[in-house]
Design brief:
Layout: H1 4-13, E1 26-27, H2 30-40, E2 47-51, H3 57-62, E3 68-72, H4 75-84, E4 89-92, E5 107-112, H5 118-127, E6 132-140, H6 141-148, H7 158-166, E7 167-175, E8 180-181, E9 188-195, H8 206-216, H9 224-230, H10 236-245, H11 259-273
């Protein structure tokens, strides 16, 4: 089912209006589906999972590579998918809380993610990385480029660091808003996220690193020492001592720090200010 009119007709038949609250935009250009397959290169034998399949446009393509599990939040879409693809395993669930470990290991995830929930879904995928091999996602262009951004620019932030410590990222084609219904006002972009078997740098406490990175960007326009203090997690004294021990100029901003500097800073902040037993 492709094309704007056929998607609109099917949605009317299901008495479903695309939800802005859930960020629902359906791919209506068959060339985009081909681009996703070409870029993501699913392989026979891979354990494929599709998140947010909607009406099944990409689902149909993915099923040609073998067994597929689809995770969908809308009951009416689940019913439609089961009717259209009897061989498809359909799970009614919000992907932001789904237990990927229940499907096994080395999962390969495909999905056209709703813009409004992209951050939540990316962080959930990162927390589920032990079960995941890679993810091929269609995201808002600006957001996809933030994930892959390097230090030194406005795009580089907390989620950039989180992804790059644990993953390799590869940006793909840019997709016009004309390819969707309803038509968004922004472009989309494909990205492949390959989950590393081990972090890029040795991390002693993953949750603590996440807290330190979040605190570092709490006031991203401020100097790093002041941002750490403003987060409420660290005193100015402890922040200054940790930065000195990490050989990081306290006058720098968080957006200039490399991955290994964040890891080093987290280690020193734990030594100076992490309460005993805190994880």
């Amino acid at each position: 089912m492709h094309g704007r009119s056929s998607i609109r007709s099917k949605l009317q038949e299901l008495e479903h209006r695309p939800s802005k609250q859930r960020g629902q935009n359906f791919v209506v250009n068959p060339r985009v589906l081909e681009a996703i397959i070409e870029f993501g290169a699913p392989k026979q034998g891979e354990r494929l999972v599709e998140v947010g399949p909607g009406l099944g446009a990409l689902t149909e393509k993915l099923l040609t590579f073998g067994p597929l599990t689809a995770i969908e939040i809308e009951q009416s879409f689940c019913d439609e998918l089961r009717s259209k693809f009897p061989e498809l395993e359909v799970i009614l669930h919000d992907v932001r809380t789904f237990d990927f470990a229940s499907l096994g290991r080395d999962l390969v995830v495909f999905g056209n993610l709703p813009y409004i929930y992209s951050t939540d879904i990316i962080f959930h995928l990162l927390s589920s990385r032990a079960s995941l091999k890679r993810a091929v996602l269609l995201l808002q262009r600006e957001f996809a480029e933030r994930l892959a951004a390097g230090p030194g620019g406005r795009e580089y932030g907390r989620i950039s660091v989180a992804c790059q410590v644990y993953c390799d990222l590869r940006l793909g084609p840019v997709i016009s808003g004309e390819a969707f219904f309803p038509r968004p006002k922004v472009e989309s972009r494909l990205i492949e996220i390959v989950f590393l078997p081990q972090p890029r740098h040795e991390v002693e406490d993953h949750k603590w690193l996440e807290r330190v990175v979040k605190a570092s960007f709490a006031k991203r326009r401020k100097k790093l020492v002041n941002s750490l203090k403003a987060s409420g997690l660290f005193s100015g004294e402890h922040a200054a001592k940790a930065l000195e021990a990490s050989a990081i100029d306290p006058g720098r901003r968080a957006e200039t720090l490399r991955l290994e500097e964040f890891v080093r800073l987290a280690k020193e902040l734990a030594r100076f200010s992490k309460p005993a037993g805190n994880t």
